[in-house]
């Protein structure tokens, strides 16, 4: 039996983890809720529209995902400086991150808006599906600057151990997106384009609110709001390894969608629903990773490696347990969820089978996300970049085998998710787990 003092410290740490993770959970699930709402609204327009949304949302989230370093690198930089007692420097790094996010968002919105039909065409969909995908992209890309500013602002606030503000803004954004999506798609009859426009407006509104909050933090510490060229360059340079790491993840997701596309419209439409639910549960599990990021960053900034090890141990237990609970919920709810997204009986059957498959794999995902968050919080982006490419190499042959030999429909969805949620996630678990057993990532100081 462990000493009472040690148990007391663990309980105190658990309270700290939950104090950060629970609000972060609400903020994180807002984004997949956007996708779920859009999927439910668009799904009742038809199978082709739902398949088009699958392609378009994958492309859009790939672009946004490649910029997730704006949140992760900012959280690590701000939390380290704040943990070392340098609040003004922490907030200056955050302001520079916001300027970088705004510039990237404008450039990417223009580029993707022009290239939308060509990008959709690369995924090999038929003409009807491709048309719907291009429509959604054109109307949603104006929200890209807002999406990236939301990432950077959220990273700043997490680094300051404020996960409540992003929660409140995310809830408001999710409600606004739901109202706009239903109104524009069904009330005004804009179809899938209305869903994209509603998402864009909601993201821009969230960016404005979060940006104002960060500016107020900076004003209190008398931090300049002007972009600092050196600071922006540092933000970009520190984020580059995380771009590579995220690129490996997004390439794996794109490969998965390409495989689903090759297995027919029913498989692709079903994959959109399963992937939307997976995204919701993944972001829920990622709340623990966010808590780990902030606590690890503060611990390393303060030079307390013993505390960092304790954070790693406790958050891994939480991640595994949360994965078991979420898996049970998804499996039990799968027959009830499928009818919410489509009236096609073939798609419904495939959705239920896919959700049961992903439910079994969620405990592994909970373990992986926490390890990933710990290493990101430690600023170990270079290793994560190499590890990400290695896991992609391990996954690609399995995905290609599914495309070559799996049948269309229900079993195609099952085999596809066994490959992605099983093989790919297991490879991530091995690479991050082996790294976490060492001390190479535990670099202290601000």
Automatic annotation (TrEMBL):
Keywords: Cell membrane, Membrane, Transmembrane, Transmembrane helix, Transport. Its main location: membrane. It is a multi-pass membrane protein. The chain crosses the membrane at residues 12-30, 50-78, 98-119, 139-160, 167-188, 200-218, 247-270, 276-297, 318-338, 350-371, 383-402, 408-427. CDD domains: MATE_DinF_like. Pfam families: MatE. It is found in: Cell membrane. It comes from the Bacteria. Belongs to the multi antimicrobial extrusion (MATE) (TC 2.A.66.1) family. PANTHER family: PROTEIN DETOXIFICATION 44, CHLOROPLASTIC, PROTEIN DETOXIFICATION 44, CHLOROPLASTIC-RELATED. This is MATE family efflux transporter. It comes from Flavimobilis rhizosphaerae. The lineage of its organism: Bacteria, Bacillati, Actinomycetota, Actinomycetes, Micrococcales.
């Amino acid at each position: 039996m462990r000493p009472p003092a040690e148990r007391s410290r663990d309980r105190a740490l658990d309270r700290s983890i939950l104090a950060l993770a629970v609000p972060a959970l609400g903020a994180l699930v807002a984004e997949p809720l956007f996708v779920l709402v859009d999927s439910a609204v668009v799904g009742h327009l038809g199978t082709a529209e739902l398949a088009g949304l699958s392609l378009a949302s994958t492309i859009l989230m790939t672009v946004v995902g490649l910029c997730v370093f704006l949140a992760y690198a900012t959280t690590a930089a701000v939390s380290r400086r704040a943990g070392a007692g340098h609040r003004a420097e922490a907030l200056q790094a955050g302001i520079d991150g916001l300027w970088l996010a705004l510039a990237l968002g404008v450039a990417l919105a223009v580029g993707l808006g022009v290239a939308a039909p060509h990008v959709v065409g690369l995924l090999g969909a038929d003409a009807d599906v491709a048309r719907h995908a291009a429509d959604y992209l054109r109307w949603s890309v104006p929200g890209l600057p807002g999406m990236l500013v939301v990432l950077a602002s959220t990273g700043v606030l997490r680094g300051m151990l404020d996960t409540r503000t992003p929660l409140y803004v995310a809830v408001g954004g999710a409600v606004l997106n739901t109202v706009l999506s239903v109104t524009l798609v069904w009330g005004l009859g804009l179809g899938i384009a209305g869903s994209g426009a509603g998402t864009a407006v909601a993201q821009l509104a969230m960016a404005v609110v979060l940006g104002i909050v960060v500016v107020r933090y900076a004003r209190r510490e008398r931090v300049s709001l002007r972009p600092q060229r050196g600071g922006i360059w540092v933000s970009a340079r520190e984020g580059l390894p995380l771009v590579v790491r995220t690129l490996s993840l997004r390439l794996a997701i794109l490969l998965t969608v390409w495989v689903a596309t090759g297995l027919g419209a029913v498989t692709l439409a079903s994959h959109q629903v399963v992937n939307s639910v997976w995204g919701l549960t993944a972001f829920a599990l990622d709340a623990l990773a966010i808590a780990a990021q902030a606590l690890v960053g503060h611990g390393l900034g303060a030079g307390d490696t013993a505390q960092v090890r304790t954070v790693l141990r406790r958050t891994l237990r939480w991640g595994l347990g949360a994965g078991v609970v979420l898996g049970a919920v998804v499996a039990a709810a799968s027959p009830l969820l499928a009818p919410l997204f489509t009236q096609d009986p073939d798609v419904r059957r495939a959705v239920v089978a896919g959700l049961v498959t992903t439910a079994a794999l969620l405990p592994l995902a909970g373990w992986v996300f926490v390890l990933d968050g710990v290493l990101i919080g430690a600023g170990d982006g270079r290793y994560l970049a190499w590890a990400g490419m290695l896991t992609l190499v391990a996954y690609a042959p399995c995905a290609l085998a599914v495309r070559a030999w799996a049948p269309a429909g229900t079993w195609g969805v099952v085999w596809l998710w066994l490959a992605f949620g099983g093989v790919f996630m297991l490879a991530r678990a091995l690479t991050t787990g082996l790294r976490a057993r060492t001390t190479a990532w535990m670099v202290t100081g601000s």
